User: Fold this.
Amino acid sequence: QVQLVESGGGLVEAGGSLRLSCAASGSISENGMGWYRQSSGKERDLLASISSDGETYYRESVKGRFIISRDNAKNTLYLEMNSLKPEGTAVYYCAASREKGLVVPTDYWGQGTQVTVSS
Assistant:
């Protein structure tokens, strides 16, 4: 069982940047990982994912602005978010898969961290 804890959310002005972190309770070196966001009243959407060997996927709406990365030595996943937009206001979740490839991770979830982008 992998436990995930997100941090780094907060209030930021439109155009600003934030870096989210997701600390795992154990090794994630063999897990595909990802970041989701869920706005109020909407579905949870996959923003980006990363395989165990560093292959990445990005949702079209965040390409060129967000960067997903991982530090397996620190058991930590990151999401660098730049040029944030007000529609990015949401709860951001970290997730892990039991699979190591570039997958849609849904097996383990963090509790989420709130990001609010002011206009």
